[in-house]
Amino acid sequence: MACEGNGMSDERIGEALIKEVIDEELRDMPTGSTPPLTPLAVEVRNEQEKKMVTQLAKMIRIVGDKVHDDRAFQDAIDGIAQDSESKWERFKQVAHKVFEHGITWERIAVLFYVAGRLAVKMVEIHLPQSVREIIRLTVEFFRDNLLVWIQEHGGWINSFSDLAVASVQCMSFMNSQTYRFIFIFIAGLGLGSFITWKMTR
């Protein structure tokens, strides 16, 4: 059952998550170099949704870090940044590359992360006004191509276990005890969110 059944909206959480991931990527940019993002994206309505967005954003950052050094993605991001005429078409090409083998929670995380990295690139090349367009393009792609899949797969609440596994697989620690600790920590975040969701129904 998707989040709508308990008062949470998969659409609202997804849009807030896109903003959160992009915001997170822009935090290291110089103060004043990025436009305010708040009016451009929907805000979560309660503490439960806020916690879910925050936890998902952390997992997305871990999952997304593995594409950070992927030359093909970096070239695609550079291509979008340099092509002022057809950003939407270039963005769709990157998005379709991410999902060329189907939609998964991990690939959704990668797309959101790529949007965040693209926002950073636009600020670095002194086009901060384009960050607003990146949010709009990502939200539009999310609504048109991912929202129905998310709802059919139980909503964002069901993403935690898959993203937790993907997060752990991304970390290259040698010590198996460290693996166990991280997995238990991330799984605990997901379980805590699930328990909170159940209690507030």
From TrEMBL:
Q: Which GO terms describe its biological process?
A: extrinsic apoptotic signaling pathway in absence of ligand; intrinsic apoptotic signaling pathway in response to DNA damage; mitochondrial fusion; regulation of apoptotic process; release of cytochrome c from mitochondria
At the top level of its lineage, which domain of life is listed? Eukaryota
Entry's Pfam families? Answer: Bcl-2
Keywords for this protein = Apoptosis, Membrane, Transmembrane, Transmembrane helix
| Gene Ontology CC: one annotated term | mitochondrial outer membrane
Ranges where the Bcl-2 Bcl-2 homology region 1-3 domain occurs: 60-156
User: Would the keyword Mitochondrion turn up in this protein's UniProt record?
Assistant: no
Q: Name one GO molecular function term.
A: BH domain binding
Q: Where are the transmembrane segments?
A: 179-197
InterPro entries the UniProt entry points to: Bcl-2-like_sf, Bcl-2_BH1-3, Bcl-2_fam, Bcl2-like
Matching entries from Gene3D superfamilies are given as: Blc2-like (1.10.437.10)
Q: What's the family?
A: Belongs to the Bcl-2 family.
Q: What is this protein called?
A: Bcl-2 Bcl-2 homology region 1-3 domain-containing protein
Protein species of origin = Channa striata
